[in-house]
Write a structure and sequence with these properties.
The protein is mainly alpha-helical. It has a domain of about 100 residues. It has 14 helices and no strands. α3 packs antiparallel against α4. The longest helix is centred in the N-terminal third of the chain and has 41 residues. Interacts with microtubules. Pfam families: RMD1-3. This is Regulator of microtubule dynamics protein 1.
Length: about 325
């Protein structure tokens, strides 16, 4: 009787082991069939590298879930569960495979969005650009947010209503502020904070603008540090120095009264940054040529001023800003 009991127990253990192995063989077979089917469907949509990633992820997942396929002792499988069907296994695996693909799709979509946004900006389609990016303002993506701030700022300049301009400028400031919270090391976000913080302060009067001038300068200096290959950042830093050097006597007195250490700079410092911008990217911006010419005029260097003012006057017009620069340069040349 004891022998019969032992024989029955041994037979049951072997049956359980057999069921366990059969279960995993069916799972593995269904997995292979699923991968072949999925790869065929996605062949036209994904690169070989992406499909390889899907296969790798699926096998990794399979290995983690079925680490005890061949244990040291037979795995215990409940008779109530039975053998898992191929369709059930496939359905269970599909969300995991889909999850492995989704991040790549999202990254690619963001890349296309940013590329489209930059094209629209270069085409000066600011309203269309803003409408496009507004759809993504809720996403925590610094690259999208600073571009939305830039687009909103440009749309504000097109408005004929001072109230609407202010509302849009403050809205743009909010976007770039959020971009910097998300990514404090984003040079473009610092560059646009330089522009929009000064713009925001200008609505609060001269005292606030002078007070914020230190923070404004820090942002553009940080942008230059983070990306020394961006000519526009050096141009803006030069423009800050030029503007401070140009402060009228009355504003200088107000600044000295309000602050123990008011902002200071010089034409020499401004020229240094304007020339650095040209060194990084020659002839990148008509206004930079104009500002170099104007700075040389302030420094009484007529010959060099003529060279750069002529360059600004003859610069190919691609925007309304280029046209304004061309006209101002021509006027200055006529006055020399």
């Amino acid at each position: 009787m004891v022998d019969r009991f032992c024989s029955s127990k041994s037979s049951r253990a072997m049956e359980l082991a057999y069921l366990s192995i059969l279960n995993h063989v069916i799972r593995l077979s269904s997995l292979i069939l699923f991968l072949l089917w999925k790869a065929t469907l996605m062949a036209l949509q994904f690169s070989v590298r992406q499909i390889g990633g899907i296969v790798y992820h699926a096998f990794t997942l399979y290995r983690k879930r079925l680490l005890n396929v061949f244990p040291n002792k037979p795995a215990v499988v409940s008779r109530n569960i039975g053998v898992i069907s191929p369709i059930g296994w496939m359905l269970g695996l599909m969300p995991a495979v889909a999850t492995s693909v989704k991040p790549d799709e999202e990254k690619e979509n963001k890349k296309h969005l940013i590329s489209e946004a930059d094209i629209l900006y270069n085409e000066h389609s600011y309203t269309k650009l803003r409408n496009l990016l507004l759809q993504y303002k809720g996403e925590e993506n610094a690259e999208i947010l600073w571009r939305l701030a830039r687009a909103t700022f440009e749309v504000a300049k097109l408005s004929s209503s001072p109230a609407e301009q202010k509302q849009l400028d403050l809205e743009a400031y909010g976007y770039v502020e959020l971009a910097l919270r998300i990514d404090p090391e984003n040079f473009a976000a610092h560059k646009w904070m330089f522009i929009l913080l000064d713009k925001k302060a200008s609505y609060d009067g001269l005292k606030e603008r002078i007070s914020q001038s230190f923070a404004v300068k820090q942002h553009i200096e940080r942008a230059c540090e983070l990306n020394p290959k961006d000519a526009t950042s050096f141009h803006l830093l030069g423009y800050w120095c030029f503007s401070v050097a140009e402060l009228p006597w009355l504003q200088r007195q107000i600044a000295s009264t309000l602050f123990a250490k008011p902002p200071v700079s010089s034409y020499e410092e401004a020229l240094q940054y304007f020339l650095r911008a040209e060194e990084v990217e020659p002839n990148f911006y008509s206004t930079n040529l104009l500002m170099i010419g104007k700075t040389y005029l302030r420094l009484k260097n007529r010959e060099k001023a003529i060279v750069y003012l002529t360059g600004a006057r003859d610069y190919a017009v691609a925007s309304s800003k280029d046209l304004e620069t061309k006209q101002e340069a021509a006027k200055l040349l006529n006055s020399i």
